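Journal club prep — side note

Before the paper discussion, L.F. wants everyone to see what a predicted structure for a comparable chain looks like in token form. Sequence:
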Amino acid sequence: MFGLRAAAIAFYPMYRGLAKLVGMTALSTGPSLSDSLAALREHWGQFDFFFVHYKATDSAGEDGNFEGKVAKLEEVDAVIPELLTLKPDVIMVTGDHSTPSTYRAHSWHPVPFALRSRWCQPDRAEAFNERDCQKGSLGLFAATEIMPLAMAHADRFTKYGA
């Protein structure tokens, strides 16, 4: 996958299977975010790219639990400083789909996307939510652009014709 040694840290079998289908190594983890972080730390030097799936935000949305979804998102927010101690080239935070708690199901709505790299420029996004992220320098874009963005911001983008 993009010439990377890629690993998936996911508890649910579907995500582990999808990771294997695209050539990623599926690493074992428990259901909690702290389990996933432990797996990430354990395997940090062995892979170039990690996909970490966190199901709890989706589950809270499907349950219609707005406060629970906010709490799960805040858990993700709280571990970002710990992730930064690993000195990754790029951190991306997004969802594989939107699950509004008012809708209680997967929806067609855009998902917020945050990207951090030493190559990033400041932009107008002030919060991590659907509306503020659209104001950012990336705006709305197709999911097929995520890996090229990651590679470019890791300074590993393959240049063509230059």
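L.F.'s comment for the group: The radius of gyration is 16 Å. Keep this in mind when we get to the figures.
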